[in-house]
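#structure-requests
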Amino acid sequence: MREAPCLHHCQSKLFFSLRLHCPRCAPGALPPPLLAQWGPGYRQPAPGTGIVVKMSGGGSEPERPQFLFVKALASRGRLEAVTQQMGYHPRYLDSFLKTQHYLLHMDGPLPFDCRHYIAIMAAARHHCRYLVNLHVLQFLRAGGDPQWLRGLDFIPPKLRNLSEINKILAHRPWLITKEHIEKLLKISEWSWSLAELVHAVVLLAHCHALASFVFGCGCEQEEGPGGRGSLKPSPPGNQCFCEAAMGNGCGQELLRINRKRVSPRVGLRGRGWHGKLRTSRRHRPSAGSPHSDTDGEVTGAANLACYLQDPDFGYQDFARRDEEQTQVFRDYSWEDHGFSLVNRLYSDIGHLLDEKFRMVDGLQSSAMAKRQGCEPSVFKRGIWNYIHCMFGIRYDDYDYAEVNHLLERMLKVYIKTVTCYPEKTNPEMFDRFWKQFKHSEKVHVNLLILEARMQAELLYALQAITQYMVS
């Protein structure tokens, strides 16, 4: 027998211990939804006896979900629903967490607060309150200006200029051109460098695709009054991490820190990021703003429209008659072109992304494929190619008639909804449309959607950057 990890705060530092149960929590066990994520082989005893788990044999420690959950908690101070869902596939989760940590927290071209603001802009395109709220807290924790949370009119023009490609990549990535790239890179007070732009593009694609996963797995449905959408302020010292794992924020301390900031940061970390804003800084936040100084709730996603440019712009079916554009894309691939370009301009991210793409392709899906009457590789390739086809990417060596044979109609409806307009996904779609699939298999399909969509967006953006560089 081995005890399940219970995580608590000790002497104002992130300190984690494997204990029978946290002394600051009610006796008993973690809530069933969280316990279920530890994977097969775990069981919960009678109430009041603590958490006892039965470990299955084999597997190294880094592959076990609980160790990855501890890593996620150490990094972000909470165990998000996304991490719990991905815990059904711990090898992929490990790769995902490494990539996300590198994008958001390691040295790179973009300032840390700007990374989280770009993530807010990306998540808002799909009205994903779950991700917006997470990155609002991270933005403030990174020292971000609370004024920016009032919307695009309150951010530097350099960031605001990213709205156009954010909109295009989120909904119709095939429309992005070298002219969009040139507009951002042209010499001016608010110009981007190539390295900064590549970092931003990867962040946008990452968050757009992650929004699909959030809606596809029902994480967004957990939002709402009293749920993860309402970030309850409480000082970190008064909150144990068992509570944090279930969604309570530490917004009050973050806001206390940010209230001390009395002047804008101009040019602290590079030209253009913290310059003069369009709107006077004398306009202070109202009580209902995302960064309210009151003791009420921190509602970072109260009005997502403030982060959107052209909110009515959405997905439209790719025009198959545009054979010229489709043909061009047959000559541009991740393996031969995208990987080397992104790795050259944003060191090491190409390797992390490539590992993640390969990891999702290598996940076991024999039972899922057997029910569909095909080999696992055939089933996964059918889903991947169907998603790419919706974005105008087709492969000469694939018979697209197989898609209708491999994927039943309701599954295709689900995949298209989650991929193209995830905000229209409802809980019934996850539960009812494919009852023959286990929960872990549904998560697997959503991981395929996440990675296929992200790669499609990256291909279009990186192709446009390549065309700009050679023109």
